[in-house]
Amino acid sequence: MRLRICALDEISRFIGTATHVISIIDPEDVEFLPKMSLKKANHLVLPCHDVVSVREAMVRKARMPRSSCVAPTKAMVKLALEFGRQLPADHFILIHCHQGISRSTAIALALLCERQPEIRETDVLQQVLALRREASPNRLIVAYADQLLGRRGRMNRAVSALYGKI
């Protein structure tokens, strides 16, 4: 599986080459996604905001009662893993969020960890950093992926160590 990570404004570079896309986008921005010539089954849209805890989402909602804040969920991460599981090795998946830094890199980390169970999480994180130098994976998404993949906190620790270096 070839994988690329990008921001929303970089998608046009990959239209026509990516066979599958995961869009992790603010729910209010879903309608602004660029049109891609993909079968619906080849494009997974995960509408959520870039928050690192359910508590943060609740605080945002309390501060701005007329707006909504949707935290990533374990079900969303499970959908992304299932989507990635069905991809043949020769397919090209594009994963993007608004900035290509947090949500998309966390999903990329999850997919790569699942595809490479024998590789240490810190080494898989280095692969993500090689794909997207400014990666700063969303901790809530990583925590859900860690649970779903049975990594016993190792994904969380790898990302925490990265945050300690930033």
Features:
166 residues, alpha/beta, Protein-Tyrosine Phosphatase, Chain A, four-stranded parallel sheet, 4 strands
Kindly describe this structure.
The chain is an alpha/beta fold and 166 residues long. The chain has one domain (2-165): Protein tyrosine phosphatase superfamily (Protein-Tyrosine Phosphatase, Chain A), CATH 3.90.190. Helix content is 41%, strand content 14%. It is built from 6 helices and 4 strands, in the order βββααβαααα. It has helices at 54-63, 74-85, 103-115, 121-131, 139-148, 154-165, and strands at residues 2-7, 20-25, 43-47, 92-97. Strands 1-4-2-3 form a 4-stranded parallel sheet, covered by helices on one side. It is globular and about 45 Å long. The model has no long low-confidence stretch (mean pLDDT 94).
